Amino acid sequence: MTYNPAAANPLFGNPLKTRTDVERGLRDLFDPLLPYFSEGGARVRLDGAGAHFDRAAADLEGFARPLWGLTPLAAGGGDFAHWELYRQGLANGTDPDHPEYWGQVNSTDQRMVELAAIGFTMRMLPHLVWEPLPQKAKDNLAAYLKHARQFDYADNNWKFFRILVDLGLEECGVEFDRSLTEKYLEELDGFYLGEGWYRDGNVRRIDHYIPFAMHFYGLIYARLARGDDKRVAAYKERAKLFAQDIQHWFDEDGGTLVFGRSLTYRFACGGFWGALAFADLEALPWGKIKGHFMRHLRWWADKPIAHGNGVLSIGYGYPNLFMSESYNSAGSPYWALKAFLPLALPADHPFWMAEEEAAEFDAEPVSMKHPGMVAFHTKGNVVALSSGQQNWQMRHGTEKYAKFVYSSRYGFSVEADERAYHQGAFDGALALSDDGRHYRVRETNEEAQIAGTALHAVWKPWSDVTVETWLLPANPWHIRVHRINTPRALHGTEGGFAIERADLNADTYIDERGRAVARSKTDLSAILDLGGQREGRAHRALPNTNLIASKTIVPQLRGDIPAGTTVLVTAAMALPADAGADAALANPPEAPDIAALESLFAREGIDVSAILVPERF
C-alpha cells in the first residue's frame, strides 16, 4: 500500500465534532512524543534540527509546550497517564546537579518562553505538579522560576510569560517580588492600539501573535487573576472588540489567513476562540465561536503536517524548513496545542453545549486600519489586501509581511533563490530587476494609508526608484495599480495566487499577451494586465516554496519597464474550479481612474497604524 503522508497526521480521520473528539485529538497528538522523553523526563528531543538557542532550551521546549494542551485536559477532568513523567522532568530539569538540568537563565532567553507553560500548569494543577514533589524539588523549581523572572523579557508578547509564571508561583504559595508583575502588565497595556488591536512590541507588524498571544494570554489572565478587576474587565472588552475583526481572518471552511511569522504553530491560530470560552466571554454567539474553533481544527485534519512517526513537523501545510524561523526547533510546532484550552471547561459549559453555527460571511470588504488590511470572503477562502507592515528580522520576512495580498486557501510562497529572478514565484508581489538575475520586491513602505476599502502605499525598491501602489477589492477579484518612476530600464514580474500543481503537467496553462491563467482539478487562478502591455506566464514555481501546497503554478505578468514613469494595472483572483470561477474569469473588473484614487486618499486617507510605530531593530 502506498504511503499516505496525510494519514500520519494524528488528527487524520477524527471528525472533530464533539468535546470527546477534541480530547481524543489532543491525546493522539501527544502520544508520538513519548518515545522521545529523556530517561529523567526533563528533555524531549525530536530530531537533529537546530534553532538559534542552545540544545537544552530546545529540549525544554519539547517538554513544556505540550502542557498547553495537557493542562486544560486535566483541569477539565480528563485522564492523562503521564503526570509522574512530568513531575520527574520538573524536578530534574531544575536541579543544577542533575545531568538533564535545563541550564540557568542569565539574560533574555528562550527558556523564559517555555517556563510560561509551567507557570500556567502550576496555577491550574498544583495538586498534580507541585504538591506531590519532595521539598528539595519544590525549592529547586521555585528558585529556577524566580531567578529567570528577574531578567528583562523581550519587549513584546514575552512580557506575558513573567505574568503566567507569577500566577503559578502565587498559587503554590511561593513568595516573589510582585512589583515586576505590575510593571509588565503596565508595559503590555502600552502595546494596545485600540478597537481590540495590539501590536506585538514596538515594531511595524501586526500578525497572528495578536490573537494567539496577546489576547490568548490576556484572556487566561482574565480567568485566573485575583484582585485585578479593572484590568480583567479591560482585557475582556478588548477581546470582544477584536473578535468582530479577527473573524475575518478565517474563512467559511475554518482556514485562517496565511500571514506573518511563526505559522508553524498551525492551529494555535484557533486558540483565540478557545480562550474566549475559557474566559467565559461570549464575544460572538457561542455557536459562532464554537463554529470557528471546530472548523479550524477540522481544516488541519487532512493535511500532511506530521512526519511518519506522527510528530508534528516544522512547516505549515506540509514539512517545510524553507519557511521556518531561526527560533524554530523540532519542538516548536507544539504551541499548536494552545488550541485545546477549552478542554479546561466542563462538558456542560455553553461553549460545548452550543450547536455550531456557520460563519455566514458576505461578499462585502472589511477594512482594518490597524494592520493595514482590507479583507473579503470568496468561496472557501478569505483574501486580505495588505499595506503598511514590515519585518526585517525574520527569515523571508518580506514574503511574510510585505506582499500585496494574502489568502487562507492559497497561502503564499517564499523565495528559494534570490539570484534566480526568472524562477521566482512572486505570488501577490511585483518583482523588479535591473540585471535579469537579482530582484527587488516591496520590503517596507515610505507611506501607507487606508481610505474606505482602498489601500495606498509608497515604496522604494532602490533609493532612486519609487513605486506607488493602490490596492482595491473587486470581489472575487482584486485590483493593483502601480505607478513606477525609475531613472533606468527595469524588468517586472507580477504574480497572482499560487494553486496546487498536478504531476505530469496535467493542469491547464494559458500564457497570452495580457493574461495568464492556470486551472487544476480543484482551482482556477488568473492574473490580467488591464493595460494589456505585459505577457502572461503560468509559471511552474520551484518546489516547496508555497506554504500550503508543495508544488504550485503561479500565473504571472512579465514585461519591460522603460526609464521614466510607467503605470501598471493588474487584476487577480483565484477560486475553486467551477462554473462560478468561469463566470468570474469572463467578467474582469475595469481599470480604476488614478485621479479619482488620488482624490479619495486626499479626502479620506488615514495612516495605517502599523507604519506609525518606530522600528527599533
TrEMBL record:
Membrane-spanning residues: none
Q: List the Pfam families hit by this protein, alphabetically.
A: DUF2264, DUF2264_C
The record ties this protein, via InterPro entries, to:
DUF2264_C (IPR049237), DUF2264_N (IPR049349), UCP014753 (IPR016624)
Domain of life per record: Bacteria
Give start and end of each DUF2264 domain: 18-357, 365-579
Instruction: Provide the protein name.
Output: DUF2264 domain-containing protein
